[in-house]
Every structure is written in structure tokens, then in C-alpha cells.
Amino acid sequence: MSIDFYDATSEAIHDLNQTERQLFDYVIKNIEIVKYMSIQKFAAERFLSTTTIFRFTQKLGFSGYSDFINSLLVTSHSRQDTVMPDIVVGRGYSEEYLRNAMEAVRVMSPKQVEEVVSRLADKPSIYILTDDNSHTLGQYCERLFIGLGFHAYFPETAYQMQNLVNRIRGKDMILALSYSGRDTSLIDFIERVFLAERPYLLSVTRADNNALESLSDANFYVFADKILVPGMDLTSGVTMLMIVELLIYEYIAASKSSPE
To answer: What is the pLDDT of residue 227?
Structure first.
């Protein structure tokens, strides 16, 4: 019996190489198209060999291409059963906007969620780092963690950030929010910290092979369409914040169920 594509691949996606990550991203954004593709058609669409596609499906944990397609069919059916609020149905980008959010939740690795919750249970100091486009999200996350009793700090300026290099300890946690995962100042700062200490690094980035993810102990993916207007990046940060909030909710639930 085939199982939901996201359930079947949640553990495997973190071991994919760059080409496989791109294939995975293509699949989840085009499930309704891919589910009807032969392996030859899929390979031609992505300018790859059928052998590469077959190995990709096996890397995801499927026995072969047919098993992969059957999983997409099950997932497609479950999506059709999703109840969408009336206010957003049929309003152009609204459906895609919500689909991106649902995909981000579905690919969250239960194993990594459990690991992050376990780390939070130790009440580490949390240092929140962002790229320029995620600055407001960093401020909000700081308030969330402080409200839960954590020592949390979000550096507002480059000067404040550089002063943290020698303050972060191995028992602490860094939460890094960067859609691209390639912000050079952010990567440089983390590498400088790692020269002296090795705190736990939790990151949220887009689903591709990026420098921030490669440094991280746990990484969660966001899916959002890049939207730029003159002088402003309007790429949605809602999914990134949603992932942080879900991790916090899991931590709260685990704290309530643990023995006093």
C-alpha cells in the first residue's frame, strides 16, 4: 500500500545532493503534473537520464519509479480533500501561497523536530540571526522565546552581532533565518563562532543546497516564490515564521506532558 509522499520522504530529503534537491523541489511544486509522467517524460523535462531519475526515487526511499508515482497519486488525492477557506478559493495566487505553507509543514522531519524540542528542553540561551530580509521575523522570534522564559537575543545591528562572537558558548543555540541560506555576513559570523565554540545551529532556509544548511545541526525548509518589486523583496516570510512557531508549540506540548 502506497503512503503519502511527504511521509515517505521526510527523513530522506536531508541526504539529497544539489541535483536531487532541485528534483525534489520540482516534484512538490508540480505534483499534479508529475504524477502522470512516465520516467522518460520526467527525465526529458529535467534534461536528465532515466537512470538518474530512477536513482533519485530510490534515494527517496521508493522501490522504483512506479512506487514513487503511486505515492504521488495518494498525496494528490489527500490534497483534493483539503478544505480551503472560502475567502481564498479562486483568488489567483492565494491557493499557491497556502500550498507553499502546507508543503513546508509536510516535509518537516519528525526526527529533527524531536531533536530540536529536546535541545529546547535544556533551556539554552538562544541567539537569533537573520539576513536583511528576515529582520522583522528575528524581532518577533526574540519576543516569543523571551515570553517562554528563555534567554533570547536578536542583534539589531552589525555592531551588536559582531560583539556576540565571543559570548556564544557550546551549550547555546543559534537560530538562523535566511531564505537563500547564502548570506555571506551570516555565514562568516557563524564560522567565526565555530572556531571557538560549537553551539547547536538550527536554521530555516529554502529547499536547496546552501551554505547555511551545510553548517546546521537541524535545518527546515520553506517554500516561497521569489517576489521582487523595485527596491523591495516581497518574498513571503510567513512560512519561515510558521516553522518556528510549530517548533515552539511542539516544545510546549512536550513540556506539559513530561513528568514534574
So the answer is: 63
